[in-house]
Amino acid sequence: MNPDPASPRNLIVVSEWLTHCTTQRKGHERCPKWELINSKLPTRVISVALPDGLPRLYIPEKEEVGRYAALSYCWGGPQPHRTTVANLSEYTRGLPMQQLPATILDAIALTRSLLIPYLWVDSLCIIQDLEEDKIREIATMAQVYKNSWVTFSAARASACNEGILGIQEDTAARLSKSSTIPVTCPNDSLGSAMLYPARFQMAPKWYSREGKVPVNNRAWTYQETLLAPRVVSYYHDAIEFKCLAGLHSNDGLKAEELDEIKPADQRQAKLDSVFFLDSKDGLSAAEFPNLEVLWSRVVKEYSFGRLSYPDDKLPAVSAIASEFQRLSGDTYLAGLWRRSLVRELQWKKSSWRSGTIESTTAPRRAYRIPTWSWASIDGRISNETSQHLISDRVEVLDCRVNPVSEQAPFGHVDGGYVAIRGPVKCVDLKDAWDNFGLGQEHQRPYESRKIGLFSADFRWDISADAEDFRRHWGIPPDRGPLWLLGLSMRPRDSYETCGLILLETSDNRYERAGLFYIGSEYYGGKHSDVGRFADHWGDDYEVRAVTIC
Questions:
Q1: pLDDT of residue 206
Q2: Please, what is the Cα angle at 520 between 515 and 524, to 5 degrees?
Q3: Beta strands 452-456 and 436-437: pairing type?
Q4: Residue 176 in this model has a pLDDT that exceeds 80
Q5: What is the pLDDT of residues 490-504, one digit of tens each?
Q6: DSSP string computed for 85-142
Q7: Fewer Cβ close by (within 10 Å): the C or N end of the chain?
Q8: Residue 415 in contact with residue 479, Cβ under 8 Å?
């Protein structure tokens, strides 16, 4: 083991990983075989293997194929070196190496060392000040990463000027505690073996890698590493290789051992083989329904990530969405899917971990995502209704979204609605405050008296001197009462015990304000009134149509 990622030994290890995977050697039978004929080059790539040694931006011929690497990294702010309309022609003659940040320079060096002719980097291969080019190129992101020979993940760098090839100090510290012992080889000759502490043995029990793996905290990098068939990640303490065959590390730790040093809330999405099928026809009857479960996991893990620009919420997951649409043939609706729409509408904002989403200084949204979409709010998202039964009184009458560009059907949207017929009831805000709890993080006195839970979206800014129930539920002072739309129930229930909290707008439509649950078990309620209130909850439901925007 060598603490220098660019050492000859580490380069050989990475090269062997890639060769074994791309040629489907033993243990890699599930991995997609790399074939030149199926590896169309992106619109632009960086050519790194030129005789004069100066990398330049290369524009391939239509349908030209080739072997290329891709880079997944954190920008960490504005990119002065980015490709623009003004410098595009200059960059095709040669890149300004003295202006390029360390991470991109390191990626170029890795690409050359591994004898890969081309490299794709978003800030250089997309014209950053030409909106139509950005829309077109982001729409092809799935194929860019899927067709790559390898994707380098700059896991240790929080900004592009930090690089990925510097000495790994943690690795050097482990090696300083190593010992060499004599061993007898199989041919009876005398050899030696080095013993050194494993990564998790050097770390205290409270240790988390999350703070040292910035790339895992970014939203854009999620789809990049999920869709790439082969990812080499350069951490602060190791080099790891991930493919469909599993996880490998240059320090010899196996996948099950690596779990010991990864935080419980880290993204765990494996490279699922369904992404590499030619079409949905390749899915077995048993696999196809799992797309709904897989998408729910994607939303949960993607929502961990930070975005510098709130409007990127849908574009930054659009490549994954395009793959799901290719496989399922379903209709995509601003982060949700038509076939499972009623269940997917029952998402909630999980606030158990704070400070992990958008920058507080991020610009305001230019586009309006419908409030029924999880993409309309900033925060971690979960859906805990997988065991619920969808009510047979619920019917989706219509659902529409307005894509900003026809070229990017999985990208920006500006408005939309869903019309649903289902059981609805009106609840006064103060009555709701008396009968519903806030959740485990916001316990109030006598919480056991509550008959259920209101999980608020907190999409509006509320004054600190507003009434308690408005502050804790994020309800503006000029809005109310609450309208509750029942959508699902637990198997033992006789009425809808889970659904959307809505607020009426001025044009007789509604906006989503949160999710409600009925059931005293959410709080371990033991008060005698709880059962009586809950048993009669559904008595005054009225089945009618509502339109949510």
A1: 34
A2: 120
A3: parallel
A4: no
A5: 888 888 999 999 999
A6: TTTHHHHHH---GGGS-HHHHHHHHHHHHTT-SEEE-HHHHS-TT-HHHHHHHHTTHH
A7: C
A8: no
